[in-house]
Amino acid sequence: MAFDFDFDLLRELTEASGVPGYEDRVRDRVRTVFDGAVDEVRTDEMGNVIGTVEGSGDYEVAVAAHMDEIGFMVKHVTDDGFLKVDALGGWDPRVLRAQRVRVHTQQGDLTGVIGSVPPHTLSEEEREKDDAVEDVVIDLGREPEAVEEVVSVGDLVTMEQSTVKMGDTVTGKALDDRVCLFAMLESARELEDPEATVHFCATVQEEVGLRGAQALGVDVDPDLAIALDVTIASDTAGVAEDKQVTRLGDGAAVKLKDGSVITNPKVTRRLRDVAEAEGIEHQLEVLPSGGTDTAAFQKANGAKPVGAVSIPTRYLHTVTETAHGDDIRSTIDLLTAFLASEDGGHDYSL
């Protein structure tokens, strides 16, 4: 049952390029899916996409998952034709050496590589130096004049990677947060005749400070908000159990806290109750640091009850992010069951 969902759509979403503020390609695909699944689709001035399913009652719920992925913006082209970049989102520079990238220019996409000096030529001091994003140099394999003709300051850079099945898991780039975006879209397609009006929100610029959700929380102003994002699954060799946060294959993760939010205890309890009643595999998430759109919705337009469901993911913020197929399915099922049973009659006041 590990791949009981539309893998082709998941692959399209994750392989698409869309750094913060430039989510166009992902946004186009989201709108296409929404067109056949919701009652109304709109895009705001920041680029957030809202697909609304009208309910029979007055209660309104917002569900959020972000479209953007971490990447880079070109800040300088050297006289030798190499590119220097500025980070868009939080990179661990250790994973960047010798990676293949895609540079998005006005004349089309170019393949490049992040250079790495062979260890044979490094001094002892150079070998001990910590990697830094500011040291990244991108090689396009072209003469300087050819690079200057096609690349400009402000062009965008994303990692080049395919998304594939690996055993019971899916691995590739940008599962953060496209795997949750996918789960939200699948829920929108599966939800039938809800009592609550549901605004499915594909947000922008999460990786640079939850900016899209902050604005959207004011515009949509829901009675309840549920955010979807990936979470750490460091269930690998050499990591102590208390540092693992979640485990692949143990189900959708119901968030209790992260570095930006403490979820509403009553919302969390109801998510757990729904999962138990429906026999949906789930686990609890206590994430020491990091933030999600949940926090933006909690206080964007006054105090709001919020909850969050996460998909456990290994190797976050790399090109080999990995999630378990059953956890993806559990997240879709939990979100859909929760929304189907939300009638506005639950008291989330504390």
TrEMBL record:
Organism domain of life: Archaea
Coiled coil (UniProt feature): none
Binding site for Zn(2+) 1: 66, 176, 229
UniProt-annotated catalytic positions: 206
GO MF entry, a single one: metal ion binding
Matches recorded under InterPro entries: Peptidase_M42, Peptidase_M42_aminopept, Peptidase_M42_dom2
UniProt entry tagged with the keyword Iron-sulfur: no
Keywords: Aminopeptidase, Hydrolase, Metal-binding, Protease
Residue ranges of the region described as Disordered: 110-129
Names of the cofactor(s): a divalent metal cation
Biological processes annotated in GO: proteolysis
Sequence intervals crossing the membrane: none
CC cofactor note: Binds 2 divalent metal cations per subunit.
Record: residues binding Zn(2+) 2: 176, 207, 317
CDD domains listed in its UniProt record: M42_Frv (cd05656)
PANTHER family: AMINOPEPTIDASE (PTHR32481), AMINOPEPTIDASE YPDE-RELATED (PTHR32481:SF0)
Similarity remark: Belongs to the peptidase M42 family.
Name of this chain's protein: M20/M25/M40 family metallo-hydrolase
Taxonomic source organism: Halobaculum saliterrae
